[in-house]
Amino acid sequence: MAKLDKTVGFIGGGNMAEAMIGGLLAAGVCEASRVHAADVSRDRLAYLKTTFGIHTTGDNCAVVDGCDVLVLAVKPQVMGSVLSTLDAGCGPRLSKKLVITIAAGIPVQTIEGMLASAPGLAVVRAMPNTPALVGCGMCGMYANPHVTSADRGHARAILEATGRVIEFETEALLDAVTAVSGSGPAYVFYFVEAMVKAGENLGLDTKDAFAMTLQTVKGAVTLMEERGESPKELRQKVTSPGGTTEAALRVLREKEFPEIVMTAIEAACQRAGELSRQYV
Ligand SMILES: NC(=O)C1=CN([C@@H]2O[C@H](COP(=O)(O)OP(=O)(O)OC[C@H]3O[C@@H](n4cnc5c(N)ncnc54)[C@H](O)[C@@H]3O)[C@@H](O)[C@H]2O)C=CC1
Ligand SMILES: O=C(O)[C@@H]1CCC=N1
């Protein structure tokens, strides 16, 4: 992966920031000396410094001053206070920088509005997911009109260090991204939990049931990736007429499994929209 000739600063050094910092360093996109992070937790800062050898501070404005690209990686609930402090303390100094926000449900307009002393701010809103922690993330991104094509490339380079990136021209689609891939790992974990429980109910011990389920999910994913066949075609190949898979799929259909999944994802999308309106 190409090296980024930029310094990157993180406000909030929690799980997602850790995943992104780890990805940037592992992929060689940035050197540790060019990464800064601020957090209110001294323990987090000590952990990040020891683990990655990056610059750490308790002062959010010091990170702004030390970076070309600022990643906002705090929880949505504290974003308001973080942004108003930044705006008062170092807002005008943000105007030449690229801001990437990964907070769920906070619209670009809100970020721009709260950092009003940096008019024309270039903001990328991104929605990553937790497999970023192992370099296998899926991230949707939207760039506001102030983001130059060079900065779009920089944002992509930073986000691609932890996995795949798809860019959207319409910010509203990030609600769908949040519902499908942002929250998506949780649906897969839930499905795995249910498969393991089913195995246990049928007499398998937990360790074996988990190992079998995990390898099955991994194998199915690899099959979908490596063969040019649709999930439907691959499903049909497992399903022998009058056989065991058919018996299981009949129950899934009768219990409206596809509708349940679709309704659940629609609920996540709706919630993402509600959160966005809440933070406008
Ligand atoms: N967990 C997930 O699956 C996903 C999370 N996100 C978003 O990523 C963002 C970060 O989430 P996580 O890393 O999971 O949260 P986290 O709670 O692990 O990290 C947030 C960090 O911000 C720090 N912090 C709190 N107040 C601060 C302040 N005033 N100044 C500086 N740092 C402060 C906290 O000490 C904490 O270390 C959230 O906005 C979330 O919506 C996005 C996609 C997926
Ligand atoms: O549950 C949430 O709201 C966040 C956004 C996507 C994953 N976690």
UniProtKB/TrEMBL annotation:
It is found in: Cytoplasm. Pfam families: F420_oxidored (PF03807), P5CR_dimer (PF14748). The keyword Amino-acid biosynthesis applies. Keywords: Amino-acid biosynthesis, Cytoplasm, NADP, Oxidoreductase, Proline biosynthesis. Its EC number is 1.5.1.2. NADP(+) binds at I11, G12, G13, G14, N15, M16, A73, V74, K75, P76. Signal peptide: none annotated. It is an enzyme of class 1 (oxidoreductase). Its main location: cytoplasm. Residues 171-275 form the Pyrroline-5-carboxylate reductase dimerisation domain. Catalyzes the reduction of 1-pyrroline-5-carboxylate (PCA) to L-proline. Belongs to the pyrroline-5-carboxylate reductase family. This is Pyrroline-5-carboxylate reductase.
